[in-house]
Amino acid sequence: MSRDSLNHVSSASHDLADDIVRRVANVVGEAEAATKPLELDPYRSQLFELFVMADAAGFVAEDAEIDLTADNLCRELAALWGLTEVTQDAMAAQSKIPPEQLGKLRALWSVLRLWMEWDYAWKRWEEFHPRQGS
Hints:
This protein is mostly helical. It has one domain. Helix content is about 65%, strand content about 0%. It contains 5 helices and no strands. It starts with 10 loop residues before the first helix and ends in a 6-residue tail after the last helix.
């Protein structure tokens, strides 16, 4: 997370956001090491818990000062894994993305899809679960 652009946001908030990104990356690494998809437990559950933490901290809102929406989380992960440069280089050279980075790219797509689905469901929860007595 870029601290320079968000000087007015607390250090604890930045630390929490950094920790969430790091932990998402660790879950992806564990799934890759086990050659299991992120969509299966325990990885899916671990990622969902991190989504819930990010949402509770206010990081998943579109206007959040610290942005961990699906798009920005994936930008952070892509930067962490060096995927931004790899994909730009492959496109410029009109070559294939190396297999290791291609695996990370697939994992990134899975994280993006899961995070977006949870965000969508979370935002629509009240619509389908009205409060009793209201």
